């Protein structure tokens, strides 16, 4: 069973067709990026995969389970903004929703995103890149079947962005999660992923899947 299987996915908001005829299969441990212009349905796709979007046509399964029936810990999510609790520490932010998590496990996650020594810091004391790594640790906390990232680097300055992209590749090498990352940045998409999926803006058109040969640093 693949980590993610989408077939014939169609989602409309009234007259507005956000997604149509989307087919996509992602294997365990694969890193896929989804690119496309603004309004092509990237955010809608991620909302469907998180199970937040209950009404759609077609099929979307995470490890064989319909996204509408899966538990919330099947999918981890990282947003464009880190969305951290400002009054909570790094450790507390990572542990949000992790019921009964022991400190050792949380500290391990903090360490995995390179924030040793910052366990008790608050978001206001962190740089943008560090805050986004806290969000990454939180997204990985449940050991989700699928990690979704929605434009995770778009709000960062260029240098920090490159740093964080390489950091994500390191984390990926170590933990081998299955990743679907959505971005409007074609270069970023090609740099990060094993496979780039282009979502067309025109309703009714079929998505094109292109394979890219990615040079590694
Ligand atoms: P992207 O993330 O690629 O910019 P979106 O998934 O946000 O695209 O939007 C896809 C299309 O669906 C757009 O035409 C958008 O206006 C429309 N859309 C998205 N969410 C809603 C909603 N909640 N209600 C109505 N239309 C929506
Ligand atoms: P992004 O480009 O980052 O996907 P959007 O501005 O498209 O962000 O969407 C932000 C929010 O507004 C989303 O929750 C989306 O569902 C909602 N939205 C987008 N387009 C519409 C629309 N035409 N009508 C109602 N809600 C919309």
UniProtKB/TrEMBL annotation:
Residue stretches spanning the membrane: none
Pfam families associated with the record: ABC_tran
GO molecular function: ATP binding; ATP hydrolysis activity
Key word S-adenosyl-L-methionine present: no
Domain (ABC transporter): residue spans on this chain: 4-217
Source superkingdom: Archaea
Record key words, sorted: ATP-binding, Nucleotide-binding, Transport
Entry keyword ATP-binding: yes
PROSITE patterns documented for this protein: ABC_TRANSPORTER_1 (PS00211), ABC_TRANSPORTER_2 (PS50893)
Protein name, per record: Sulfonate transport system ATP-binding protein
Source organism of this protein record: Natronobacterium texcoconense
